[in-house]
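Hey, I'm writing a tutorial for new members on how sequence and structure tokens pair up, and I'd like a real worked example in the thread rather than a made-up one. If someone can provide the structure for the chain below, I'll link this post from the tutorial.
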Amino acid sequence: MVNSEILGNSSLVIELKKLIETVAVSDTSVLISGESGTGKELIAKNLHSLSKRSKYKFIAVNCAAIPKDLIESELFGHRKGSFTGAISDRLGRFELANGGTLFLDEIGDLPQDVQVKLLRVLQERIIDPIGSTKPKPIDVRIISATHKNLEEEIAAGSFREDLYYRLNVLPILSPPLRKRKSDIVLLFEHFSKIHAGNQGNNVSLADCLVNAFESYSWPGNIRELSNLSARLTTLYPGKKELRASEIPETMFPVGLRKFIDVKRDNNVKTNRVEDLISLAQGNSEPSFPSEIGKEIGDNTDLEKSLKERLAEFEKKLIKQALIESKGNVTKTAKTLNVQRTTLIEKINKYSINLP
């Protein structure tokens, strides 16, 4: 496993990969912070796989998922007869990860009495299994993660400050999906291929859906995108250029529906690419402003390539939209249904002077 498994070409992801490569060679404790669903465990696995401990085990523990009265036993183990139900010796996660990496997910939910014992383990590198009279030395690297603001938890008295500083030696932030929207299509297609399996019935998105996806905030982050990819891959196996109009509204997350509605109700935006191609081929009238379409349709040299004709029409369309918005780039981007950064690139590409 290598850190290329963290997919994305956005600047945030590129910087994240570089940081992982730098931090992985160290044995120092790492604290990964970020919203739920951003892939914190994947970051931890990459840190382990790129480290000198990669030949040993990577053990993950979700501190929020284990009942409070069992978590000490889960982490440190117990000896037979140490409490009711302890019918045999049990190795804790620390011992199972010995030599490798222990990933403590949702560390902010760790009970305070266990926080004290974890602090001792980090300080002395020994564990005390429940019911044992002899401490055991351990050699593990601790990587922890949380979606909580631990500094606020410290102020509220629910998390130990001394433990926080032991865990947060090397901090890594896992960015939310809304801040790396240029990765959405890549991630969707990756998940679709996984969900399609060997049948190869993966799904791709039409521009209208791509624009809607990039407008949505994705509160569930990558996990939410993966779930939606699984749903659409199951319902529309093998569908290429899947459009919003083909999908029932109930199949979309509630927050995404308003962006889908905008694309459905506005044919100018929804059919922008199709209109351009149709116009360039001389097959139909576009849904764009008639004066622009007429000018291009009448005056374009028939010997020009489709690419040249599309570029010429796109340039005139952008110029007209900029004039109507009085040079407001943000408003123009919304009118043309493109990302603001994409519009700026095209303005520079065509050397268009802002009015």
